[in-house]
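Data card: per-record layout.
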Amino acid sequence: MVRLPPYFVNLWCHPIIPLKKLIYDSSYRAKLIQGITLFSVVAIAYYFFCNVTENLQKMELPFGFDFLSSTAGFDIGWSIIPYDPTMSYSRVFLVGICNTLILSILIVFFATALGFVVGIIRLSRNYLLSQCAKWYVEFVRNVPLLIQIIFWFVVVFSTLPGPRQSYSLFGGLVLNNRGFYFPSPVFEASSSWTIIAVLLTVICSFLLLKKSKKYRKRTGKHLPMLYPVLAGMLTIVAIVFLITGTPLHWDVPSLQGFNYRDGFFFPTAFGAAFVAMTIYRSATIGEMVRAGIQSIDRGQIEAASAIGFSPFKTLRLIIVPQAARAILPPLINAWLTIVKESSLAVAIGFPELVSVFIQTSLNQTGRAIEIVMMVMGFYMCTSLSISYVMNKYNKRIQMREG
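The structure for this 402-residue chain is written out next.
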């Protein structure tokens, strides 16, 4: 009779993967499958990385991120942060990120606001308004976004008058075929006291509004001193501002030579991309809002009307808070799409991340793999961050049973 070594006896009696748990324990089986999947993904990624580096070495092409410290040597047409050609490629990457984020944030804010208006008008009892909103949605959604961006850039913004014939609004806002100019604030050294007062006022207002909300839930009434206290805090900020000598003035744009100087401006490419993407996304958000509002039981609206709520109060306090639970999940996806769609602005020459980094920087350095990986990593991290924060908020506002 052949005796098995003790090692094989222990392995037979106590296997690494217990077959009984694998067959009958669904939780254990799920964890095991997830572990195997994660290991497979990491192994495949490592294989491709080693394969790429080996092929690059055979072709005598460098691989690494040392080029980020090299001087870029090219100018960028517009930047939200300071930049000049003597700066490095890492600064170019940062400029592209900032330009992409400022465009995306503004589109998210205005497209969401306009989308809510469109969605509410879609449900209006006024036939003309509802039909106008309906055809607005149908037309905008069915024209490709890239076509709309090019249309706004070529047909609208590029046909504006030159700097000497600019449209001037309120004495400080200027619009021409170079861009949109507006005054920029200039803070003096003593303005720090006003900023501190504003921050304290914002914190106190937040705490007061939170307390008012709890008071309204408990009693059904607004906190009696809410508005007087808010007005008093704003008065304190104004007094601090005046005592410190009004440490704020505006840098107003003025025509100097062939162009406007001073102030701040957005180029026409930014304006075209912003308007086109805002209109395009507002149509889809409007449909999300319409569907979310229609998911609310009609009886709640009738009950609010029966106890004397005005239509606006019913919308603000009853319909929108409940509809938000249905609107938020697709709205998160729309916001993620806006960030990724901002790369389409490269078609009209706006210096966002794809334009300044994948096009210009890649052509100069030849580091295609590194640059594409960095751009992909930025979009992935941004999307995951937005998704994480908004999913946390969505989980918080969802109704819980029990």
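Known properties of this structure: Residues 173 and 182 are 5 Å apart (CA to CA). The longest strand covers residues 173-176.

See the next section for split statistics.
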